[in-house]
Amino acid sequence: MDATGIKQIQKIISLRAKHEFGWQRVESVWKATNLIRKHSTTLHGHRTSISLEDAFWDELRIIAEKRKMSFAALLAEIDDARPEGSNLSSSLRVYVLNWLKSQ
After folding, report:
1. Dihedrals phi, psi of 53, to nearest 5 degrees
2. 43 by DSSP, 3-state: which?
3. Spatial CB neighbours of 72, under 8 Å, sequence gap ≥ 6
4. In this structure, are strands 36-43 and 46-53 parallel, antiparallel, or unpaired?
5. Contacts of 30 (CB under 8 A, 6+ apart)
6. Buried-state track 3-25, b at ≥16 Cβ within 10 A, e below 16
7. pTM value?
8. With contact defined as beta carbons under 8 Å apart, do 39 and 57 qualify?
9. Is 93 helix (H, G, I), strand (E, B) or coil?
10. Which is nearest to 78 in space by CA: 40, 50, 37?
């Protein structure tokens, strides 16, 4: 994902944060979007870690809840749909971006 795509995602997350939490939370959301960390999870029955910003991780949990599915099932769905050889972390970011744009 290029810098323009990341900036678009950060803008959407920032607007969502402003809407849901008010201005006082926007700064902390911006910081979270810039910190990549490893998240441990189970994918297709195997433990793995995914490098992803907390803001995207949290948004994926919200999406799973809204879709009334488990978090693991959502990750597996995104993993199964991504093009061969593509990066899972990038696919997760793009999924969140597309979800937020459709709301």
Report:
1. -65, 145
2. strand
3. 41, 42, 43
4. antiparallel
5. 10, 14
6. eeeeeebbebbbebbeeeeeeee
7. 0.68
8. yes
9. helix
10. 50
pLDDT number for residue 37 = 87
Show the tokens assigned to 40: 């441990």
C-alpha radius of gyration, the chain, whole number: 13
Q: Torsion angle of alpha carbons 7, 31, 83, 40, nearest 10°? A: 180
Strands (DSSP E) found in the chain: 36-43, 46-53
pLDDT digits (tens, 9 = 90+) for 30-86: 555 567 889 888 888 889 899 998 889 999 999 999 999 999 999 999 999 999 999
Residues sharing a CB contact under 8 Å with residue 34, sequence separation 6 or more, in sequence order: 53
User: Collapsing DSSP states into helix, strand and coil, what is residue 65?
Assistant: helix
Please answer whether residues 39 and 50 qualify as being in contact, where contact means their C-beta atoms are separated by less than 8 angstroms. Answer: yes
